[in-house]
Amino acid sequence: ASDAPPPPASFQHAFETTVTSHVDHSAAVNSITIMRKLIINATTKDDAKFRKIRLTNAKIRDAITDVPGAVDLLLETGFQLHTDDDDENVLVYPETIKAPVWLPAALRQMEHYAQS
Length: 116
Fold this sequence. Notes:
By secondary structure, the protein is mostly helical. The protein is built from five helices and three strands, in the order H-H-E-H-H-E-E-H.
């Protein structure tokens, strides 16, 4: 897994925007931790509910939707923005796509940041 290629510049930019847009470090760590968990769940669990993120959910809004760069970071990893049947904005990780080859390196980077 350590031979995974590094994340692309577009992911790095979204990551840096996310962590630097927070006023305090703990809020940035919280956002990164939540996103990391959502990415892992979407790419490893065999249930559609783990591949859908409601952007209007209060916890998601605080940690992702209202944070510059955060939605872009999730889009970089394979999530796609959709409007569901209730006209709600959701991020969906299509089960038909394969996770990017650099995702393990990105997840390690996110974990390392969250532990800093």
